[in-house]
Amino acid sequence: MNRSIINLDNASNSRMRKEIIKIYKKYIENKYLFNPSSFHFLGRKSKSYIEISREKISKIINCDPSEIIFTSGGTEGNNIIIRSVVETYNINYIISSKIEHLSVLNTILDINNKKKINLFFIDNDKLGNLNLKKFKKKIKKIYKKNRILVSIMYINNEIGNINNIYKIGKICKKYKILFHSDLVQFVGHYKINVKNLLCNFFTASAHKFYGPFGIGFIFIKKGFILNKFITGGNQEKGIRSGTENLYGIICLYKALELSKNNFLYEKKYISFLKKYCIFLLKQNINNIKFNGLSENMIKSSFYILNIRLPIKDDLLHIKLDLRGIIISKGSSCNKNNESHVIKNILNIKNLKNTTSIRISFSIYNKKKDIELFVYELKRMIINNNLLKIN
User: Fold this and answer.
1) List of domains in the chain
2) End-to-end CA distance of the chain
3) Can you tell me the distance from the alpha carbon of 193 to that of 76, in angstroms, rounded to the nearest whole number?
């Protein structure tokens, strides 16, 4: 492929760091690495790399190595935790929100279809803010007679809102309720100290922070056990059996370490790109709106921006794609890339007369990428309006 690509869809997938590619190549070419479950020397040697990586990850996030289970990524991680917690602890009440990632939302709905458990979705306003007063009120009303699991994400993957996970965790801890959080858009972008999270379980995925596809991990707080999710050879405490992704695990650790070491510089740089993009959009596009809290640099992720344009054009993301600019209408997991989050926070009028797109930035974007994106976007809006006039 010779065409120039500008990736502004980094919340879906960030490009692997050059350092990670070198590490991956180094280990994949190592003829002395073997199936980590084998009992001979080469198997034990390979297993040691997994356990060293687990230990180093635990130091970065300040937890015990035994609290980390490796998975294939966020969707599997969320499924393992939610489904296993429901079975292990005989959960009969799940509390979540309607703007969670579909790997949480659809999993909860699937469990409900099969087991007919109770569901409660926390209300959100038109900016995507969760109503934690109603949440606490609901908890106080039901906690004595029910076995409850709460699942709320830290950072919304579409509108970038940062939820008050500490407050939610505090409420859950007070009423002895199990709490899971999808941290896929948080881990690797922000400093993390597990002790401050107050959640019992969380999920992370390497390809969101410049690591490889197909590897992630879940955190299971010490003292909590989960039923087996994938049965087989008893790897990963038997919760997630199957031959471990040895090379992926090593690269996950390295990607997390590099993200931690470069945190201050990279956050500052990407924040600048987001601010610059907001400035150019306001200067060049009349009546532009920002969905959720994504314009707010404190209350939203520093690398996610969700905009609402004053035209209706369902093919806008494809037109930009043809110009070599990659954006999205929402999460990559949504059918046809349609956003259930945007549908939830906007009224029918706004949905009919506007087009919403998500832009997400990385360390590999440059000022000129933003300038070209805004230029092409403005040109397309002008052409769209001319077509209406004609």
Assistant:
1) 18-261 (3.40.640.10), 263-389 (3.90.1150.10)
2) 37
3) 23
DSSP state of 15: P
Q: What is the mean pLDDT of the chain?
A: 94
Largest CA distance in the chain: 75
Query: What are the CA-CA distances from residue 322 to residues 7, 230, 265, 312 (Å)?
Result: 13, 41, 32, 18
Which contiguous run of DSSP H or E holds residue 118?
strand 118-122
Q: Identity (one letter) of the amino acid at 111?
A: I
Residues 338-354 pLDDT 10s: 799 999 999 888 888 99
How far is the C-alpha of 165 from the C-alpha of 179, rounded, in Å?
10
* pLDDT of the residue at 331: 60
CA angle, 233 then 46 then 217, to 5° = 65
| Polymer length of the chain | 390
Catalytic-labelled residue, pool 63, 199, 277, 333? 333
SS3 337: helix
At residue 262, what is the residue type?
Answer: N
Give the per-residue pLDDT at 272.
Answer: 98
Asked about 63 being catalytic, the answer comes back as: no
Looking at residue 315, the DSSP 8-state letter turns out to be: T
Condensed to tens digits (0 to 9), the pLDDT of residues 109-133 reads 999 999 889 999 999 999 999 999 9
Q: What is the DSSP string of 261-297?
A: HTHHHHHHHHHHHHHHHHHHHHHHSTT-EE-TTTT-T
Nearest Cα to 311, choosing from 235, 221, 382?
A: 382
Specify the pLDDT at position 222. 96
DSSP 56-80: HHHHHHTS-GGGEEEESSHHHHHHH
Whether the CB-CB separation of 200 and 55 falls below 8 Å is answered with: no
